[in-house]
Amino acid sequence: MIRTISKDKAASFSPDMIKQIVAQIRVMQNGDVGISHVYEVLETPTTYHIVQDYEEGGDLENKRIDYGGIFEEFRCAQIIEQLLQVLDHLHENQIIHRDIRPANILFSSTNITDFTIKV
Length: 119
Prior knowledge:
Layout: E1 2-6, H1 7-11, H2 15-29, E2 38-43, E3 47-52, H3 60-66, H4 73-92, E4 106-107, E5 117-118
Antiparallel strand pairs: 1-3, 2-3, 4-5
């Protein structure tokens, strides 16, 4: 998967936010559990491209749509538990995600009963 950030948008980032992004990429390059691995960051004259793992299970937003907007309570608890574990790991590494939303919560598997959440 490749994420793209325009340099125009990046130019508006504060120095603290840039430090945060660099720290987050370093943690993501470690391949820690629950964090989508970053392989490389490429730069063009107008954009940055972040090359990271493709998570075949898709994101929580699409899963919600696939399941008609309804998850069993047990599934919700599994998702929240894993998400909190990943966020705890990020916070231990002095990283604040800043964009937790269903589209940024990724599933490593298409099987809703056997998955790992990644951010």
